[in-house]
Design a protein that fits this description.
The chain is an alpha+beta fold. The chain contains two helices and six strands, in the order H-E-E-E-H-E-E-E.
Length: 86
C-alpha cells in the first residue's frame, strides 16, 4: 500500500535527465503485482524536449526503467544511460 501512496505523491512531477534537460511529466508508476517492486515510470513526453528526441522517445508516453532514477525531490532525475526507446 505504501508504494501506491508514493505513486500518488510523485504523480505530476517533472522528469529531467542527469544532464538537466526536461523529458516530460511523470504520470504513473508501473509496479510488479507479485513483488511490489516499481518497474517503470510512465512519463508523458514533452513534445519540445530535445533530450527525448535525442534518446529516441518519439511517442507521447514512455516507460522509463526505475533503475534509471537517480534522485527524487521536487523533480525526478533519470540517468540517460538507462533511458532508451523500446
Amino acid at each position: 500500500m505504501l508504494k501506491y501512496t508514493i505513486a500518488r505523491q510523485m504523480s505530476g512531477k517533472k522528469v529531467f535527465t542527469n544532464r538537466g534537460e526536461e523529458l516530460g511529466k511523470l504520470v504513473d508508476l508501473i509496479i510488479d503485482e507479485k513483488s511490489g517492486d516499481i518497474e517503470y515510470l510512465l512519463v508523458e513526453i514533452n513534445p519540445d524536449s530535445k533530450a527525448a528526441k535525442r534518446l529516441g522517445l518519439a511517442e507521447r508516453m514512455a516507460n522509463i526503467p526505475y533503475e534509471a532514477v537517480t534522485a527524487v525531490s521536487d523533480v525526478v532525475i533519470v540517468d540517460e544511460a538507462h533511458v532508451t526507446a523500446e
